[in-house]
Amino acid sequence: MKTILILNGPNLNLLGTREPGVYGAQTLDDVEKICLDEGTKLGLSIDFRQSNHEGQLIDWIHEAGRECAAGNMLGVVFNAGAYTHTSIALHDAIKGANVPVIELHISNVHAREAFRHHSWISPVARGVMAGFGVQGYALAIAGLKLLVDPA
Ligand code: CA2
Predict the structure, then answer these.
(1) 83 counts as catalytic
(2) C-alpha 141 – ligand 1 centre gap (Å)
(3) Which residue, 43, 62, 114, 137, has most beta carbons within 10 Å?
């Protein structure tokens, strides 16, 4: 069974505790359950992680590159949080690891502040999902499978 890695960046551990008008009321544990259910539906194993640290996210992207090269992993669904808008290091990591990534945002970043309109992840992502709330994670898992392992 192939794996999809779900990576969550800074502050997403706070999901469900504040700003429900923007991000909804569900917690990161609820999001993990949504992802596990979608994995079961599609016959995929789901590895769900969160870190507030850029270097940790980079190490996990590198690990995903190795797992994809070994044929064990399909790719990564990545909500890089605010690092989306700042991190050339994450951009370089995705490019260097040669790993299929779906960039994901719970909110529609393009309908928010101008500083959220630029993404360093988009140019190295296979697809981008934004504005579908936490259900976007399930859509992104299905979308990644369609892109890299149709059938
Ligand atoms: O919409 C998204 O998923 C974002 O990636 C979330 C990031 C934000 O910086 C991006 O522009 C868009 C923020 C994640 C922090 O989430 C919180 C949730 C509840 C309370 C506080 C932070």
Answers:
(1) no
(2) 19
(3) 137
